[in-house]
Amino acid sequence: MVVDVELPIRVPPAVTVPLDALIDSGARSRVYVEHDEGIFEPREVETGWRFGERVEILRGVRPGSVSLWRPHFWSTRKAG
User: Fold this and answer.
1) Is the dihedral of CA 46, 23, 26, 52 positive or negative?
2) Model's pTM, two decimal places?
């Protein structure tokens, strides 16, 4: 017998970035944040939950910041 089950999961509102935007060395986690137009700087971040292709940023990035990784741009946003 095979059963397909879907459980609705609600994640709390949070600042998130795509998992691909996170550089996790094991000891440190970083994302690149746009400082000025076209100028990006690395920011050390503290991460929280991971869900699908998103990761929560607890500290180090404010809502609305733009991060860069592998020539794509992603905007942080609130989940929910």
Assistant:
1) positive
2) 0.68
